[in-house]
Amino acid sequence: MYEKILVALDGSEGAQKALAAAVELARTYGAELHSLAVEGKLPAYAASIGEVDEAKAEKDAFFERIDREAVAYAAEHSVELHPVKMVGDPADRVLQYAEEGGFDLLVLAARGHSLAHRFHLTGTADKILDHSPCSTLLVR
Amino acid sequence: MTELWIAVGIALVALLASIISVEFGVSIAIVEIVLGVAAANFFGLHTAPWVDFIAAFGSIVLTFLAGAEVDVDLLRTEFKGSLLVGGVSFLAPFVAALLFAYYVAGWSWRASEICGIALSTTSLAVVYAVLVETGLNRRRIGKLLMSATFITDLGTVLALSLLFAKPTPWIIVFIVVSALLIWTLPKISPWFFGRYGDRVIEPEIKLVFFLLFLLMALGKLSASHAVLPAFLLGLAASRLYATHDLERQRLRVVAFAFLTPVFFIRSGMNVSLAALGANLGLLAALFGVKLVAKMGSVLPLARGFVGKDSIFFTLLMSTGLTFGTISSLYGYQAGIIDKAQFSLLVTVVVASAVIPTLIAQRWFKPKTDEEGDD
């Protein structure tokens, strides 16, 4: 039913659930599994280059760890995961990558890890659902 | 309010600002300024001499860091273009804002000079964040933007140091000692960092602090400002820091954890909402003067250098934050501008960090999937 699955990761508890669901689906259908972690925006209107550099380095380290853990988790369940990292607006990047990669299922968490997400001040999941080029599974 | 309660208030504002900054992805500096405004206008938080002192030192450390973050090799490769664009980007808004403040707003000449300096700036950090996020830092437009911004910054610190200097004998001492330090630091620091660096007691940070305090003291004696030598000292140390990332990171930690929050919160605390409310027309006019002067002067040049991306380029050259705030705070603490003028300038500076960036990213962002042109 599904041949190529993309799961969006952001290090949140919800994304961990999304990964578990995606791994299970990939194993069940023998699908190729990819993950995309988007290093959200850098601090807007920074006062020093240091602030930007440090934020970028922190994000790099954070998302590298997420990728490593996700690959290890998938391997434990006999699934090979192909992780990719991008920079920019999470919703835009996920939509762009899902479309360009020809995925037939996109799996993502209903809630990300930031307060902005929790209070629904940003509608990453909503935007992805509205514009997704393929079937989309929203994991709660 | 006792001094300890002032410390409690500032520490709480700094903590809240860092949480908001992380959660909402907005620069800590802007959040600190905004919360400083709220703390002073709604909760009665006021300053103390020690707060002013730490804020002044925080501004000098920020200036040193700005110099240390300059990519000297990049500046060399784009020198001609950046000198032209960056020079015009400083001069045109400086003259326009100075004349507007003096002839239209009726400010004193010295207050108008502060206005010109504060509104002439371009924020290297605001520009840098946009470039890194979009990957444009690897293309020629990004390299030219970064190096031109450095030239504009240099114009700002030159103006701030030279326009308000008084001809006292101490000015000679200030210049000679500054030149000696700037010349000596790159020569002794590799040895010093090698022998004393990478220790928890941080002798290399103490060396930098000693030099910056010395510059501040001599600047005060000579009725000038340490911002220019501090910037050049940072520039002289930039190659060293490029190869000593750990030391640079530790200096940033000390600066961002304590010194720069006090500077930005203190700046926000000076802003009077009542004064802003009474001068909304002037506020909009000053913002317009900065934007129009930058657009009118940089855009024609940018067309020649970056073609169809010239509006994006010019909008980013119109941003300002750190040096605009430093100039305004200097003017206020030196008694050159009053609280209402300070409030107007800092608000225009913060607005210029946000509005041109938003417009540039929303409507004029160059396509990032194009081949690099470097």
Task: Give a description of the structure.
The complex is a heterodimer of chains A (140) and B (374). With 140 residues, chain A is an alpha/beta fold. Chain A has helices spanning 13-29, 49-76, 90-100, 115-118, 124-131; strands at 4-9, 32-39, 81-87, 105-109, 135-139. Chain A has a 5-stranded parallel sheet with strand order 3-2-1-4-5, sandwiched between helices. In chain A, helix 3 (90-100) packs parallel to helix 5 (124-131). Chain B has helices at 3-24, 28-43, 49-68, 72-77, 79-104, 109-120, 124-134, 140-163, 169-196, 203-221, 227-236, 238-243, 245-269, 273-278, 280-306, 310-317, 322-333, 339-363. Classes of the chains: A alpha/beta (140), B mainly alpha (374). The interface between A and B is medium-sized, with 20 and 37 residues.
Tags for this model:
heterodimer; A: 140 residues; Rossmann fold; 5-stranded parallel β-sheet; 5 helices; 49% helix; B: 374 residues; mainly alpha; Na+/H+ antiporter like fold
List the helices and strands and how they pair.
The complex is a heterodimer of chains A (140) and B (374).
Chain A lengths: L3 E6 L3 H17 L2 E8 L9 H28 L4 E7 L2 H11 L4 E5 L5 H4 L5 H8 L3 E5 L1
Parallel strand pairs in A: 1-2, 1-4, 2-3, 4-5
Helix pairs in contact in A: 3-5
Chain B lengths: L2 H22 L3 H16 L5 H20 L3 H6 L1 H26 L4 H12 L3 H11 L5 H24 L5 H28 L6 H19 L5 H10 L1 H6 L1 H25 L3 H6 L1 H27 L3 H8 L4 H12 L5 H25 L11
Q: Could you provide a short overview of the structure?
A:
The complex is a heterodimer of chains A (140) and B (374). By secondary structure, chain A is an alpha/beta fold. Helix content of chain A is 49%, strand content 22%.
